[in-house]
Design a protein that fits this description.
The complex is a heterodimer of chains A (about 100) and B (about 400). With about 100 residues, chain A is α+β, with helices and mostly antiparallel strands. Chain A has one domain: Ubiquitin-like (UB roll) (Roll), CATH 3.10.20.30. Helix content of chain A is about 20%, strand content about 25%. By secondary structure, chain B is mainly β. The N and C termini of chain B lie close together (about 5 Å). The chains are: A alpha+beta (about 100), B mainly beta (about 400). At the A-B interface, α1 of A face β6 of B.
Chain lengths: ~100, ~400
């Protein structure tokens, strides 16, 4: 069981009813997909907010970062760095700076 | 004494404005859901403590919020406050923000495309809920008009949603196309006298009617004339901005079209223009007096290219004859340098003896009249741009 530290935009923290970073428990290999699956299981109110319900596609104004690298367009099943899996580095969901 | 509660959706949150029956002093609560676009908030006629809100975002998609205490507290109905968010097996207990088009073989009419602005075929993609219409006699049943245009219904208080596929599938769906605001189903009228009858309106497709509780539908656009489409009298393709009905006058509908104010005396089977002496017949809102079925209100907007009042004067126009003859209502409204817009769901009436009329502007003002439009005063002046206004009247 990996314990992932996750940083989310303020609006998603409000929806999830949390403040600050969240800790996600991930079974098995730590990938973008397994992190988001675990997040949505732990916080079901976030289902549909990061990935579209049916297609599972990332919402276009969101990006994902791990260890300072933009992994938005990497394979969702690619293993993430050990620093993410160990919790030493946080996994970031970042909203686009798009005004307003 | 009676109370009035005005439910306001804005670009950056929801606000609830309350007053007693005099409607002179107002309390303002909010913003609720701060920072999110709140397209619509509406209370249930069956239980005024039950409110539904459409909370949406270009970043994070669609959220449905519900209140069971008149707006004091809110929760996502799929995940009620204080209750477990998952089943013992770890599955989410509800999917209140999940809107999935019904293209199943069982419906008999799988439909996958509509027209884009340039006429090319585009698949339906859910974007947001524009309008929530709670059922007349059951607080747990609520209808949702969505973009891309379709009608959904929940029968469990918003926990889960199912499309009424007969609307998209009745035969003209492939010809629908978006208006400037998107291809949205923005108006839903549940008929008080004929409980199986539902009216909806879509930009830019037109108006539609079901006489069997939403199972089957037909376009009701005969008499509409839209010069901006290749066939101005086509069965569908009209940019209807809003429709309204008086609960006691089931067969009479009023419509603010992109251009033209229209009325129908046969439940939409045919329409006639009643723009009469309006300074311009472009606009978005239209509503009906609570006690006078032939008294109607519009806010003329200069043009489709200039979304503000003509001459910089914010004027509500009232007709006491069901159209054609209009009077300008200006007392208390800005009559110079006013360049706000009043969007399609941003007008409502209360049901007190002296009918109150309310509307919100893109400049963040919410104006109220406690005397059927004769005089106006702002309740608030500086909210975010107002998207919708609804009113609850508490006995």
């Amino acid at each position: 069981m990996a314990m992932i530290t996750m940083v989310m935009p303020a609006h998603l923290r409000t929806l999830a009813g949390v403040s600050g970073d969240v800790t996600i428990e991930v079974d098995g290999e730590v990938t973008l997909r397994s992190i988001l699956d675990a997040l949505e299981t732990q916080y079901p109110m976030l289902r549909g907010t990061i990935r579209e319900h049916v297609s599972g596609e990332r919402r276009p104004f969101l990006r994902f970062f791990a260890c300072g690298e933009d992994i938005t367009h990497e394979s969702p099943d690619a293993p993430l760095p050990q620093e993410i899996a160990s919790g030493a580095e946080a996994f970031y969901v970042v909203g686009a700076i798009a005004g307003g | 004494m009676s109370n009035v509660q005005v439910l306001v959706g804005t670009r950056k949150g929801a606000f609830i404005l309350t007053s007693d029956g005099k409607r002179e002093k107002w309390d303002v609560s909010g913003p609720h859901f701060a920072g999110w676009e709140i397209y619509h908030v509406k209370g249930s006629p069956a239980d005024p403590n039950r409110l539904y809100a459409s909370q949406t975002s270009g970043w994070f998609g669609q959220i449905i919020q519900r209140s069971d205490d008149g707006g004091k507290t809110w929760f996502q109905p799929g995940t009620p406050a204080g209750e477990p968010t998952t089943t013992p097996e770890g599955m989410p207990v509800g999917e209140s923000n999940k809107f999935v088009y019904d293209d199943s073989a069982e419906t008999g009419k799988p439909l996958t495309t509509h027209q884009f602005y340039d006429g090319t075929a585009k698949p339906w993609v859910f974007k947001r809920v524009w309008h929530l219409e709670p059922a007349l006699d059951d607080a747990d049943t609520v209808y949702a008009g969505v973009e891309d245009a379709a009608l959904f219904r929940s029968t469990n208080g918003g926990q889960t949603w199912a499309e009424l596929p007969g609307l998209r599938g009745h035969g003209t769906g492939a010809q629908w196309q978006p208006g400037a605001g998107g291809m949205c189903l923005h108006s839903i009228i549940l008929d008080h006298q004929n409980r199986e009858r539902i009216f909806v309106a879509i930009s830019a497709a037109g108006a539609f009617r079901s006489d069997d509780s939403g199972a089957t539908w037909k376009p009701i656009n005969r008499g509409l004339h839209s010069q901006y489409i290749p066939d101005p009298t086509a069965e569908v393709g009209h940019c209807v901005h809003h429709i309204a009905q008086h609960p006691a006058n089931s067969n009479v509908l009023f419509m603010q079209k992109h251009w033209d104010v229209m009325r129908s005396d046969d439940a939409g089977d045919s329409w006639t223009e009643v723009s009469g002496n309006l300074p311009t017949d472009f606009g978005f809102v239209i509503d009906v007096h609570a006690h006078e079925p032939e008294t109607i209100y519009v806010v003329p907007i200069k043009s489709d290219g200039e979304h503000y009042p003509p001459d910089g004067k914010l004027r509500v126009y009232r007709s006491r004859t069901g159209g054609n003859e209009w009077e300008a209502l200006t007392k208390g409204l800005p009559q110079e340098n006013c360049y706000v817009n009043v969007l399609r769901d941003a007008m409502a009436v209360d049901s007190l003896d002296s009918c109150g009329v309310y509307f919100g502007t893109t400049g963040g003002q919410v104006y109220a009249s406690a005397d059927a439009g004769d005089t106006w005063a702002p309740i608030v002046r500086d909210l975010p741009a107002v998207l919708s206004v609804e009113v609850q009247t508490w006995p």
